[in-house]
Amino acid sequence: MDSAKAAIKNGAPLYWASINMRAGMVVVSPIITLIGRDLGLSTIQLAWLTSIPVICFAFASPATTWMRRFGSVNQIITWALWLLATSLLLRATGSAMALYIFTIGVGIGIATLNVLLPIWVKRHGGKYSGLLTGIYVAMMGVTTSIAIGAAAPLAHLSSLGWQLSLLPWGVVALVSALWWQRYIRTDEPDEKVTSADINVRMFVHSKLAWQVMLVFGFQSMNAYATRAWLPTIMITKGFTMTSAGMTVACAGLVGSLLAIGVPHIAQRSHDQRIAIWAVSLISMTAYIGIEYGSHNWVIFWVYLSNIGQWLAYPMALLLIILRSPNAHHAQSLSAMVQTIGYVMGATAPLIAGALFDLSGAWSLTLWMLAGIALLQALAGHSAGRVGHVQRRDFVAELAEPPAL
User: Fold this and answer.
1) What phi and psi, each to the nearest 5 degrees, are found at residue 347?
2) Paired strand residues for 389
3) CB 106 within 8 A of CB 24
4) In whole angstroms, what is the distance from residue 404 CA to residue 385 CA?
5) Which has the closest alpha carbon to 212: 203, 221, 202?
6) Nearest CA to 112 among 153, 167, 156, 75?
7) Which sign, positive or negative, has the C-alpha torsion 251, 84, 343, 233?
8) Cα distance between residue 391 and residue 138, in whole Å
9) Three-state secondary structure along the chain?
């Protein structure tokens, strides 16, 4: 690839897919109390509503390795977008059953994109993989922020209530699916894939693979617990539903825009340990600040927590790309990391909700999130070293001289 400008231009398919990867899922967070009141759902039932997509991320991720034997990366991304569009539109029909059933479809569609977009970057990004990762994560963040910020106002706009907040993201997914359907007409066939090429089990005995997984898993836990409950936490601290949603939305927007350059810079550095420590400590400090901060300071700490989250996510994706020697291994590592990492992520909203029910306050939850951020830093200290994940328990630590 000749230049960064050409790399950015050639990333158009990536951007069309990335705008659908979180918005339709997180849009329920600012209006979760409205949904609960309208459908008669308890706190734990609402927590399940936010956890179902993440659980789908975990169990659908290995399936992508099986699906790759029936179509190219581009074809499967297109199928995922069609499933996502259909599920998002039908989810807004207004019944609790439809809400839960089609949330599963949303989770499967996004899970497929989660695994395959890093593979697309590995194949097309070259030395600009970090830059493309930052851009597509930023676009995820922008649409996520718009979804969170617009949710409460749309819910109060008409008699449709919370259903109106969900519908626009089904339309966005539908347009993206149509674009990708046209794009794959010129799709170049992938090289033949065998079970030996794509096999999650090949990395089960790799210490480095598990370290990358832990970084991804810990950032997932904080991300999904925060996205599920942070607006509610702000409401308990005196904010209105609309102001809480807008604050979280704007904070996410700032964080996602800052994420554009971080993976590119981290890719060019000697290793990624310092970067992972920095973003982890930002998050840890922010969660403690939310617990003890006054009204205006809470806003500051919410911004800082979102910055930490949005910087941690592309760093975790970049580790998958940099620790893989080729695209096939990247898909296997991506599936392994995301399968287990999203299982961890799915537990966090449930644990956070249970801690609130147990104590009647959010203090335990916020301290839990701060502790998870510290664990993320410790895992990243090992996963951030230069080297490739291998089929066996061998790590090529290229930058470290052998011991004498």
Assistant:
1) -75, -25
2) 395
3) yes
4) 20
5) 203
6) 75
7) positive
8) 32
9) CCCHHHHHHHCHHHHHHHCCCCHHHHCCCCCHHHHHHHHCCCHHHHHHHHHHHHHHHHHHHHHHHHHCCCCCHHHHHHHHHHHHHHHHHHHCCCCHHHHHHHHHHHHHHHHHHHHHHHHHHHHHCHHHHHHHHHHHHHHHHHHHHHHHHHHHHHHCCCCCCHHHHHHHHHHHHHHHHHHHHHHHHHCCCCCCCCCCCCCHHHHCCCHHHHHHHHHHHHHHHHHHHHHHHHHHHHHHCCCCHHHHHHHHHHHHHHHHHHCCCHHHHHHHCCCCHHHHHHHHHHHHHHHHHHHHCCHHHHHHHHHHHHHHHHHHHHHHHHHHHHCCCCHHHHHHHHHHHHHHHHHHHHHHHHHHHHHHHHHCCCHHHHHHHHHHHHHHHHHHHHHCCCCCECCCCCECCCCCCCCC
The length of the chain is 404
List pLDDT tens digits, range 364-384.
999 999 999 999 999 988 787
Q: How far apart are the first and last CA of the chain?
A: 41
Confidence grade of residue 396 (pLDDT, cut at 50, 70, 90): very low
395 DSSP β-pair partners: 389
Using CA atoms, how far apart are residues 129 and 126, in angstroms rounded to an integer?
Answer: 6
What are the structural domains of the chain? 4-186+201-383 (1.20.1250.20)
- What are 306's two structure tokens? 């979102």
Mean pLDDT confidence for 29-39: 84
Q: Which two tokens stand for residue 352?
A: 């956070």
What is the rounded CA–CA span in Å between residue 62 and residue 334? 9
Chain segment 316-375, per-residue pLDDT in tens: 888 887 777 766 677 778 778 888 888 898 888 889 988 988 888 889 999 999 999 999
